[in-house]
Design a protein that fits this description.
With about 250 residues, this protein is α/β, with parallel strands linked by helices. The chain has eight helices and eight strands, in the order βαβαβαβαβααβααββ. The protein has one domain: NAD(P)-binding Rossmann-like Domain (Rossmann fold), CATH 3.40.50.720. The protein has an eight-stranded mixed beta sheet, sandwiched between helices. α3 packs parallel to α4 and α4 runs parallel beside α6. The protein is globular. About 45% of the residues are buried. InterPro entries: CBR1-like (IPR045313), NAD(P)-bd_dom_sf (IPR036291), SDR_fam (IPR002347). Keywords: NADP, Oxidoreductase. This is SDR family oxidoreductase.
Length: about 250
């Protein structure tokens, strides 16, 4: 069995996912990058290899059950275990995250958002749990968003009142519930499960111009939660070392 720590980062051919894999790789962790296209994933891994990072690229459409099973088989065959799972892959509404809408949210939009941002995270995590349980200190990081915070949305002068997009926000809130429940269920196994709010980051999803945070900073919360010590938080919602309200 490979004694080196192994991390899988979903949706990691670009943006926060790629930067997260890069930062983990720079700390000596073997990283598996994923994309819906094998060549794209392998190209991303090759670019990290040039910097001396031990990186591999695999095809993983998180919404595809066969891809999820193949990813687990690949990790089992090549590494025998998984130490870090970062559920980074996600989608935004095809229209905009900046236009509040509730009553007119379509069935198609709910299915599109929930399939990737919630259901696939649950299914992939369950698929990989046997491998995470083989780690001495398994870490699961779910990429959430402050837009999933019911507490902040409910404030009379909510700072995120302009972003009430029901499909996206409710999926992130549900992802937060999954985080809490799974952390409790895995208590005592050595596996920690936390939700990360990366911040408003300059990516295609976040908006390149308006967002105040760089991609480098946007990856820091995921990396920090991936490398938690034994006494680190579990079942929490974190941004840059600070706990956020659910």
């Amino acid at each position: 069995m490979n004694n080196q720590k192994v991390a899988l980062v979903t949706g990691s051919n670009r943006g926060i996912g790629f930067e997260t894999a890069k930062q983990l790789g720079e700390k000596g962790i073997t990283v598996i990058l994923t994309a819906r296209d094998l060549n794209v994933a392998q190209d991303a891994a090759a670019s990290l290899n040039k910097s001396g990072i031990d990186a591999y690229g695999i095809k993983l459409d998180v919404t595809n059950a066969d891809d999820r099973k193949a990813a687990a088989a690949y990790i089992e065959s090549n590494f025998g275990k998984l130490d870090i799972l970062i559920n980074n892959a996600g989608v935004a509404p095809k229209e905009s995250l900046f236009v509040s809408k509730t009553a007119e949210t379509t069935e198609e939009e709910f299915q599109y958002i929930y399939n990737t941002n919630l259901f696939s995270v649950v299914y992939l995590t369950n698929e990989l749990l046997p491998l995470l349980k083989k780690s001495d200190a398994g870490r699961i990081v779910n990429l959430s968003s402050i837009l999933g915070s019911l507490t902040i949305h409910a404030q009379p002068e909510s700072p995120i009142a302009g972003f009430r997009v029901l499909s996206y926000n409710s999926a992130k809130a549900a992802l937060n519930v999954f985080t809490i429940h799974l952390a409790a269920e895995l208590e005592g196994t050595g596996i920690k499960v936390n939700a990360a709010h990366p911040g408003w980051v300059q990516t295609e999803l976040g908006g390149n111009e308006q967002a105040p945070m760089s991609i480098t900073d946007g990856a820091k919360t995921s990396v920090e939660l991936a490398l938690l010590s034994e006494d680190g938080p579990n079942g929490k919602f974190i941004h840059m070392g600070e706990e956020l309200p659910w």
